Task: inverse folding
């Protein structure tokens, strides 16, 4: 399930890459993975 959350987060990231700042991208991606994983677990 975690790999699915990561894959989904990368898809979201690629769609929004032009709005995410480079310096915050790693933490942004981590947050999206966490929220995606939590949503699928719930």
Result:
């Amino acid at each position: 399930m975690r790999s699915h959350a990561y894959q989904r987060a990368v898809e979201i990231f690629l769609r929004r890459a032009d709005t995410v700042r480079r310096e915050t991208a790693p933490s942004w991606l981590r947050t999206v993975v966490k929220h995606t994983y939590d949503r699928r677990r719930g």
Notes: Residues 2-41 form one domain. Residues 25-41 form the longest helix (17 residues). Helices lie at 2-16, 25-41.
